[in-house]
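Continuing the batch. This is chain 6 of the set; chains 1 through 5 are on the previous pages. Same settings as before, nothing changed between runs. Recording input and output for traceability.
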Amino acid sequence: MAIGCPGPLQRQLEQMGIETRLLEFHNDQGQRHPQQVLREQLLQVCQQIRPQLIHANSVAMSRLVGPVAARACIPSLGHLRDMLRISGQAWRDLQCHARLLAVSAATKAWYERWGVAPEKLHVVHNGVDLDRFRPRERTGYLHQELSLPPSAVLVGKVGQICLRKGTLDVLEAFRQVIVKQSNVHLLIVGERHSGKLESIEFEQSLRRRAESPDLAEHVHFLGYRNDVSRLLPELTALLHGARQEPLGRVLLEAAAVGLPIVATDVGGTSEIFPPRTNSAVLVPPENPDAMAHEVRSVLQDAARQAELGRSARQRIRSSFSDTACATRIREHFEAAVKCAGH
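Output for chain 6:
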């Protein structure tokens, strides 16, 4: 597997017996190499190991890999996990792949609108490890960590800190909730990935808002966590205010542990939680009032919490297991190789 930097992913792959090749994405000054330099590196790797197939696991990598795979005459697949606006050159790069796997029907439709050939696009929903993410008894370890009384009710917002995740909307909804339910605390799990000035300023504004008198001592920033599978069952509900969402991984994980979810109805979220399944509460995006109303309703009704949790777990078990996802991806691997005559 070709990866961009040493770290936990490389160590885990090597523990699994998977050989890794490091691509040098940046020069000694920390500047990213031009696309063509990266493609020449990748081409050399392909010529050395001659893979039967290349799988590019993101939109950015799909752009990078497409022309290289075409030049090397190696069948390839691109995985579209984000809904991004694409330029004409990006469109041409993506079209080089034999197949493009979209994580939701909403993601597939997005790229069709940007001109990607519909026959290249195939929907493969993400999956979740049902053994790792499962219902557990609450232990109270987060209460202890945060020095909160056992009576405190914990709700969570999990994901990258960025504008499209709607964290400010979640904060406003939460502010309305604690007006009448003052024992509720919001845990914000995740960190900012982007180094752009607008992203830095957004995080700063988010933290300032959380420190205001009406929210102070009720909002806790936990940063990056490697214990999400343990953390989620400690919560009473997950609040997900995304303004755009191809197919939220944390939604799958929270549902798998049987956690009640209040989420915005955007992107592929309704594909995870169709209305008929009663497996989550969906609200319009950018509408904190609607989210606050539904969160209050869920927190005040233990029976509804239990029903939402059971239905969510069943929904994931029936349609979003990691084994089912892996099987579908393998089928696309085999089809791409077969069509190429390898």
